[in-house]
Amino acid sequence: MRIKDFLPQSLLGRTTLIVVFPFIVFQLIILSYYYNSLWERTLHQLSRTVVQEISLILNLYNSNSELNFDTYEDQLKFEVKIYDSLPDSVNRIKLKEDIIYETLRDELKNIALSKVYIDEIRETDEFYIILPSNTKFFKFILHKNRITTSRNHIFLGWQIISALILIIISMLFLKNQIKPIINLAKAAERFGKGQNIDDFKISGASEVKLAANEFLKMKDRILKQIDQRSLMLAGVSHDLKTPLTRMRLQTETIEKEIIKKSLNDEIQHMNEMLSEYLEFSSTEQQVKTGNINPVEAILKIKNDINFIDKHIEVEVTKSNDSLVNENIFNRIIINILNNSILYADHIKILIEMSSKFILIDIHDNGSGIPDNEKENVLKPFYRIDKSRNQNKANSGLGLSISKSLLSQINGTINLEDSYLGGLAVKIKIENQ
Known about the structure:
Layout: H1 11-63, H2 73-76, E1 79-83, H3 99-108, E2 117-120, E3 126-133, E4 136-143, H4 151-192, H5 206-251, H6 257-281, E5 291-292, H7 294-304, E6 311-318, E7 324-325, H8 326-341, E8 346-353, E9 357-364, H9 398-407, E10 411-417, E11 423-430
Parallel strand pairs: 6-8
Antiparallel strand pairs: 1-4, 2-3, 3-4, 5-7, 8-9, 9-11, 10-11
């Protein structure tokens, strides 16, 4: 495993890590210094004060054993009890490791002649110290705030709060700086799908503005090339359709119907291929039309187009009110159906719609396509005469046109084997 495998994938995440990680390390260094220096010094000072008071009590008692400490409790701020022997209630088990009590033990070693007992009083904020002195055992009951301070918690709290505030401010700032990059990426994605990006505005840091400006220049160059290609194909189509029309008129003078029909079929195929070339050249240019429900669109296509001797079924497993661009969607479905009817006589369309996706599967009982060729047939002008009927005129553009059009509406196309024995064209459109 490499270190970069554990890094955030997004630019915001990585930038935040670059800012936050050194800050956290710096905070830990400060806390470590405070803990090892300031806090420990404070604990020793507090413990030393308590020990001095205890030493004073012991000295007073040694000088006057009749001294009543009850009268001094308010001044002493702790309770004093004297025993002739070690109380049975003393917990002789060493208290769990705690730097506060360990510090107090270290200071008590300066006045204690033997073992010192320290333990907490359960369910209270007090603790006791039992320490032997001559023939007596002194029990001192103190509040925990005598040997510790809440300042460490306050300091720690301020450290955490300030860290969170600075991290949030940093993330907001970074998010604002990264937003122009995200907008540029989205604009590039939309343009790649053939969508209009006139609403894209250049913003952000100078480097981002430079990239955005170069992207717009590239967009303009690509659009010019598309326009030139479309213009060229339109010109070629116009120039070829004129002689094709003359050829069709001349065939009328042919007396043999077989020859006439053959020539007319070839002329018709050539016209269809020219139309497909023109359609392919215009797939990058989205036509702004109204929206329509996919189920309604498919049923309308089935009823409007005369598929002679073809059995077409439409099955809707799940439907909702999702909409798609009418013109683009119709062109997609018609191209796929025109491709299917060339090789099959039974076509079944399955439609499933959810809040996130529109799924359309078009099955046919044709000869199918080999697995190693399924990706190739989605490429422009690619034809496989081996797997499908060689006698069918085909420009090799039908499926590639559908693929190009689908990219404009956040859709994808995949080819699989159909349960009918032929090809299954699977369309997935993401709802926007």
